[in-house]
Structures
1.
Amino acid sequence: MVRRKTVVERNKELEKEGKKLLFYGMKIRAITTPAQYQLIVKSIGCARFAYNAYLAEKQKTYKETKKAISYSAFKKDFVVLKKNPAYEWLSEPDKFALECAMEQVDDAYDRFFKGQTGYPKFKSKHTSKQSYSTKETNGNLVIDFEKQRIKIPKLGWINVRFSKGQIASFQESGFNGKVKAATLTVHGSQQTHISLRIEEVVSLREETDWTTIPNEKIIGCDLGLTHFLIDSNGNKIENPRHLKNSLGRLAMLQRRLKNKIKGSSNYKKQQQQIAKLHLRITNTRKDFLHKESRKLVNENQIIVLEDLNVKSMIKNRRLARSISDVGWSTFVTFVKYKADWDHKKIVLIGRFFASSKKCNGCEEKNTLLSLSDRTWVCSKCGREHDRDLNAAKNIKEEGIRILAET
Ligand SMILES: [Zn+2]
């Protein structure tokens, strides 16, 4: 078998031609036929079976022999199992879906050994995310922008709805990527999404000297809870608080669910309503984050942001709901990849940089500043500060300092 070249190797070759590989994702709403939907649900079940079977075998082998069973060894057994008439149903979905599921077990172990996640768990029909993944082989994953459809193994062409942004970017520059993998997710509300991983060969751009960018094209941003964002020019973006507004309704729906008989058709209907509301909240939040990150990248050359370790902040439970509601980390991700597309610069500054406490006028540190102080007066130079605006200005300056250093 010919070994596939790694991304690093391919990039090395492409570099000679002034090109590189770019990877990105695309999430699309699918409009499935009932038959397609049925097969997707079945495929999810089969993928879960493959995942759990491999995980169980790994655990058993380790218990008995203290040795790890390899994927290739298990795959041989699995092929035999599939031939058994009792497991005929495993041949219904495309075989790459089952392979991907087993590879996910190895990935889960890798992350566990790196200390990134807990010990791999079995997947459940009720609590795990209902999705399966498949990978590209001989061009079997195809995207058709004109007819708004995507071809997936065994399912054939699935009608989809591309977003306005996706269509606009296709019309502007065409689609030159290659679909490498697809994940199909079914939500409790019976909606289906397809997430694609796309690889594209793009030209390397000339190096820019970022220190020559004029000051007005550089912006510092402070992400907060009272405002979603405040920039060093004094623009404030209010917090949308989607979740908070919908929480009342969510609580009501969940209360109603309690009064229904588990497993009854009314119970299921109620569950679907709750899932729908969750999905709507997620979508509205994403739209908001896309819109604001696009604007920020369009209007500036260099964007300075705080490197938030949201995860550690979320451990503070009182703030947790508001923070995950605001979606800072998603926002930073969006800004990063949009900036990468448009050849703009992102500077992340360490989260221990005391951006709020330093006076932007004289650099005096206000050690008495507490979280509830929204405005303050510098004891040394007498300047009056809006807490967040002062922080945004400091963030911008720190970004410029870091840029000059590197
Ligand atoms: Zn001062």
2.
Amino acid sequence: MNQQLVESIVNEVVKRVQDEKCVEIEASGKHVHLSREAIDTLFGKGYQLTKAKELSQPGQYACKERVTLIGPKGSLHNVVVLGPERKESQVEVSLTDTLSLGIKVPVRESGKIEGTPGVIIASGSNILRLEKGLIVAKRHIHMTPDDAKKFYVENGEVVQVKVFSNRPLIFDDVLVRVNPSYQTYMHIDYDEANACGFAKGTMGKIIKLCK
Ligand SMILES: [Zn+2]
């Protein structure tokens, strides 16, 4: 087949998949977002995080820096720091991770950390005792306003997502977040990724709930 024909077929398939209210899924491993104060404590005053890899959401990136999370029962090593720095530190882990740490952690929307437990973060011999901010991130979809229009959903809406994989399932209670600064992707953690047989490129179809 010639290149042009292949491209037109690929474009048609992409368009049909989009028309089917499908979004690409990404799995997020455990990670930390750090405030300026936290970076100063863990890496030294005025330290600048080192960008290692751009993430799908514009302006967000994985850093070279790694930290250790310490709980009463155990530690999690080699936890990636995501940039840029944030107003408040936040640590996102899976429910399996919380068992390793020995801390009871609620499922929360990113940023809603009032009343959440803290955790000890270590970098070498530097120790930060975070008072709050340890969460299991609620599964969510980042969406552009254009896609929200196309999919007939709005910011804050809760939907179901049917995952197409070799271990298909339907996720309930999926929060849609619409923002012009987003790219459209669904985010799940590793527990959820394993539960649905996630592989890179796995797609999910949005199922709208009756109000
Ligand atoms: Zn996300």
3.
Amino acid sequence: MTASENGSENAPTGLLIIGASQSGVQLAISLRALGFEEPITLLGEENHRPYQRPALSKEWLQGEVGNESLIFRSAEYWDEHNVTIVKDQRIVRVEKNPDGSGVAVAASGAEFPFKRLALTVGARARKMAVDGADLAGVVYLRNADDALALKAMVGDATDVVVVGGGFIGLEAASSLKKMGKNVVLLEHGSRLVGRAVGEETAEFFLDAHRARGLDLRLQARIARFTGSDGAVTGVELEDGTVLPAQIVLVGIGVIPNTELAEQMGLAVDNGIVVDSHALASDGTTVAVGDCANMPNPVPGSPAGERIRLESVNNAIEHAKVAAYSLMGRREDYAGIPWFWSNQADLKLQIAGLSMGFDETVVRRDDERGKFSVLYYRDGQVIAADCVDAPLDFMAVKNALTKGQNIPAAAVRDAAPDVQLKTLAVQRDAQDVPA
Ligand SMILES: Cc1cc2nc3c(=O)[nH]c(=O)nc-3n(C[C@H](O)[C@H](O)[C@H](O)COP(=O)(O)OP(=O)(O)OC[C@H]3O[C@@H](n4cnc5c(N)ncnc54)[C@H](O)[C@@H]3O)c2cc1C
């Protein structure tokens, strides 16, 4: 195999970005916008052009959008911007010099010398450790190959068991139900979306999905996946119940891809540890997106608090911070982290980060189908989960951006049709409307 056939390069690229997805793509785009002139190589292990993941559990799975709509940028765009796309190369080792340059070595043996390095390696699906987990028909949903495999099976399946009541599980279960499948969702914990939302929101989603006919079972204890001729036939629970399934879709969270960082000797702790400018512990490599553990980017959050976020918005904003760092500038994370999840007809938007909250206020307008939970820490609003309530979402996001509060007492007293933005006050003048 020649160097050009396996994608490897002899001359060092200006920046090698390992991981060609949301963060890597944004990093390349932001660097070009900032005037970075050196060649960029955007390299990934997947054998697809860089694509967006969110629709894989939603519109794409349901057949509402096609493959092409997931692709980030055209081949012409990358050519015009002097970004070389390398597919199907898994980097297994990086040798790095103190000045930031080095060489990345792929499993194929191809070598990719670089002047600077970015790790945008994301996360992978956590695997289920249970008898029968290797049977055909037991699938995950992290990447395009997973999604293509799932879609290829869906036509012949009547019964699907989804394991995991997080965002991916709920989105996929809703999609599969809409596609006419008998879907049972099994959650090990005592409530849904355990990690990402508070109790009120979890309860709301449980009721809302059940009201829409989804068979959701909490505290489900899976004994094993049953099979015949190597293919899954069902899920057996510890109480002896057997749920028929031709597809078992497992969505039990992700594990950040930190192996390369560990091999390079970078600090790792639930992700690649970076400073507020996306720089890893060697001071030259940037690490961005789902793979990175960073200081909480919300202004005013406690010193030393760290977080690893798994969202499109974070991948984009974090990549912008890293692009500045690679240009020799030190800029803070702009904006407030936010997230969305579409499940059946329910559109959840989350503004801010609810970690460390000590008070919640629920705002509910059943007539108009709106539901919001505002999270407070020490009297200050820090986040909101908003279902079909985009004005509440925008009000909290704007208040956080502007350093304002929306006092809990005012929200509690307000009628459901009062707009939250009219209750916002400057933090240092809590009784003066902003
Ligand atoms: C089904 C699904 C639905 C989602 N829905 C939403 C949503 O509604 N809203 C939202 O905000 N977020 C959503 N997300 C999350 C969002 O897609 C991720 O947060 C985002 O993709 C993170 O981007 P990233 O580039 O940091 O990591 P990733 O997207 O994980 O990309 C990392 C890339 O690096 C590659 N890679 C890893 N190691 C190597 C290596 N050694 N060599 C070469 N390549 C390597 C991987 O193959 C991968 O292509 C969803 C995710 C999934 C899977």
